[in-house]
Amino acid sequence: MPQLLTNEIVAAAIAGFEKQKAKIDAQIAELRQMLSGGAAGPAAPPQAPKPKRRKLSAAGRRAIAEAQRKRWAESKRQSAPPAPAAEAKPKPRISEEGMKRIVAATKKRWRLAKAAKARLAAPKKAAPAAKKAAPAAKKAAPAAKKAAVKKAPAKAPSKTAKKNAPVKKAAPAATAPPAPPATTGTVAQ
């Protein structure tokens, strides 16, 4: 178990080391006297010489401050983001005509999808009723086409409008359950 150091023990240790230091300093002084051959005074503890404090003129301080400002400005310029002119570019917008065409195409797609769903869900007995309704729909179709022609823009649609035009999808066919896989006489490993 380590013994705790009290203030008295620490003070005694300091006194003992100071006595040893005094003896060592005396011995060093004797040795120096032997080297130089003359009388030696008491050995002074070696101290590092204090460096002289240099004074800076006001002009020197200004020059240093200006150089530091230049370095700061250069570092900020290098870390700055690219020119904000690229960010100021306006976001492309869809024209009113374009929006109308998109809305019309969407409505047409939904009508076709709804009709296809109704055909699949309707029983076979309802088919004659649908045939009777078909001539009425055919009569209404030319009027709708004429209205669509009047609404069409005078200029040809742009390439992007052609690319974004909706694609006609075929009505989904009735699906049959998948056939079971053919079995052979081998055992799967």
Cα distance spanning the termini: 73 Å
Can you count the helices? Answer: 5
* Structural class designation: mainly alpha
- The total strand number stands at 0
- Biggest pleated sheet: none
Q: What's the gyration radius in Å?
A: 51 Å
Q: Percent helix among the residues? A: 55-70%
What is the average per-residue confidence, as pLDDT, rounded to a whole number?
Answer: 75
In sequence order, what are the helices and strands, one letter per element? HHHHH
Proportion of beta-strand residues: under 5%
- Taking pLDDT < 50 over at least 5 consecutive residues as the criterion, the unreliable ranges are none
Shape: elongated
Can you put this structure into words, describing what you see?
With 189 residues, the chain is mostly helical. Among the domains are: 31 residues; 36 residues. The protein is 57% helix and 0% strand. The protein starts with 6 loop residues before the first helix and ends in a 26-residue tail after the last helix. The relative contact order is 0.04.
Task: Please give a handful of descriptors for the protein shown.
single chain; 189 residues; mainly alpha; 5 helices; elongated
What's the structural blueprint in terms of helices and strands?
Layout: H1 7-36, H2 58-79, H3 96-121, H4 127-151, H5 159-163
